[in-house]
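Action item from last week, closing it out:
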Amino acid sequence: MSLSNSTAKQHSELQTSLQPRVYFVPLTALSDAQFKAWLELGWLENDEIQKVLRYKLPLAQQKALQVRLALRVILSLQSQANSLAIRPQDWQFEYAEKGKPSLSHAFKVKTGLHFNLSHSGDWLMVGVLSSFTHVIEPHAISHELMLGVDIERLRSNTNIEPILKHYFTAQEIADLLVLTSDLQRERFFDLWALKEAFIKAIGKGLAQPLSSFRFLFTDNKVVNKEAQTLVLTEQGMINFIPPEPYQQPWHIEFGRLNKAYRFALCINCVSADIKTPIITESSLAHLLANNE
């Protein structure tokens, strides 16, 4: 499988503006028959199947399978949008030192696709960005395209106080503590989603201390916690102060999927303008049907 010169040239011109795609996929309980049918699609490598079956609880196995299938079909749909035709079972992945997944170098060069994913509770979030221009110098921080996403479910039983002191900056804590108790919990998970999205973008995990960078809400504004449907916060509501050596401009998106879930997306701006993401909420069954 190779790109024609014309296709490569078309993609190489996509330098001045990039638009991420974000997919939200509900992770649902499956019947035994549905689980068996999807497992036998033949899309997953043997080690992926073993990772799915390693979970003891059937529901955990079902969600793990849906995560892996959804990622593959979303990548295939994105490749079709780029005038390529890569089957879900053909994708190959590699993992960075701290576990961040990415396409293998060969597939990254062929497609220009970057992705990141996150799942929490009953939802999967997949972020995808297409660019042929930022894979040329994969080890140069100033040129490498870095994408991270995170989705978080609000949890009422989490003791946030010790976590605050360990992972948040003094300013983040001060801003949080002036809020009412119910809004403090909302802000905690808002910040956690933002921080997770950033460390997933740079691929360092908790080796990058969460207290080494901060997100501040302009005028300490509170995100609408009653949102029943998906909503993005307005641009400029969140100020990001990144750590060394990542102090280039970053594009930050934050929003509510619904009352229980919030999500964040972080992309380093490199040399391109980043547009507001195109957001799709779709069942896995619908994605599979669209790929046929």
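Closing note: The first strand starts at residue 17 and ends at 18.
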